[in-house]
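Side project, low priority. Logging it here so it doesn't get lost.
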Amino acid sequence: MLEWLIVAFIVILVVFIWPGSAYFGTERREDAEKPSEPKNNSIAHDKSHVKPDAVTFICKPSALANYLVKNCRSFSDYSPCVGWTWRANAVLQSLYEACWPYHGTVQFVRDNLQVSDEGLVALDWAVPSYQRRRRTSSHSSSPVLLIVPNSFGRITRNVQKLCETALFHGYLPVIFNRRGHNGTPLTSVKLQQFGDPSDLREAVRYIRYRQPAGRLYAVSESTGAGLLLSYLGECGSSSYVTAAVCLSPVFRCQSWFEKGLWWPLQWGIALYQKTGLSRYRSSLSQIVQTEHLFSRTSLRGIEEALFCHTSTTVPPAGSSPSWDTYWEHNEPLRDVDEVAIPVLSICAKDDPIRGEAKSTIPMELFEANPHFFLLLTNRGGHCSFSTLSPQDVIVNNSGADKKEINWSHKTVLEFFRASTDFFAAEERSKQLAARRRGLGGVTGGRAFRNRSISTCKRRGASGSSSLPSLGPALSLIHCDRRFTQCTQSQGPGVSLEPL
């Protein structure tokens, strides 16, 4: 087996290195032309090296869009790597961000949350490694950054660096882990469907219970955008989220699964997913044909074996839906018209995971819906966006170690700040107008925090049951971990052992 892996690795290297001009490429003729002046004159940095077409901002004209262009300087401050360097290759930089280990200055404190059907999802709170106090106060007013990783359970370098950057800027980052992902115990014979937001909804409610004074922002990575967009669409204005960002999202997920990826990428992702599922092979045998499941080599085959009824498989759970019916309930854009907060999507044209931009990015969504904004770069790969010369760094507590800030992460934080400032200014102007009319007013923040999540849409048979109430008797398991070492203390009524 090891020999075959070595041979496959050599073949992949030959494929990349031999046609170097095709994969790495030198600067195009239009890139060599003299760049024009940036549109945003308020940007103070020197941009003589920035390509005029490096980033395209696509949206429906609105007051918020104009405010973002004026106040988010990173929108026009992206200089991707070009020429003969591995960082200029979309596949290599994407693999590096997804697979290479990252040794940062962040530790994670885990909360295992028991949901309504007695299953467990995990929330990993990021804290600095030098901080003695491992848990944050519930009276903290710091904003909370909820991170939804990819749907395969891999915590990538991109996610860990985002946590580090967010901590440095005063956020409280927390990673949402699905059932059975990243060491989360599987205590019920049920896995989370691709676009089922019921578990995420309960996790958000717990976050609001634990940090009631801080605003909540959300970021998704890769296929995790399917879960985040489903949640925002089903909950609408009662999502508790102030603003959201999708990094390299996959929008049309059914066609993405059906089309498939380039075979080495698809083989690697499918192998990683089956490795995680193999921990619960005996438990999953109660609802699926495990022989059929672990013999699949495509992402569609695995998804279909887990949740769908086909002509070659026995229904996994009684009346399981067909493939088309499954996606009617799990397609991320099914309730996109109900989204009521600003959502920024950051995509690259050369993304090897999502596919060709023209057929995979719904341009009409961004041109018609005032809540959706798109930053489309020519280069950047999948959740990578490598730059030539980073101008911003993170300095640790001792000041000895400096690490660059990813361009997409800087853009995320600028978007959150600008969106919050815009709506705060709008709220102040409404209050001032109301006072002039003698009507008084209620602060938007108070009205936002008092919204009830019970107004969210309920899923049909494919979804979960109603939400449990959160209170002092909530069963939790607190865990201090670095994703490799874990000490657990069991709460009342929660089982830690997998089925």
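Brief comment: The chain has a mean pLDDT of 78.
Revisit when time allows.
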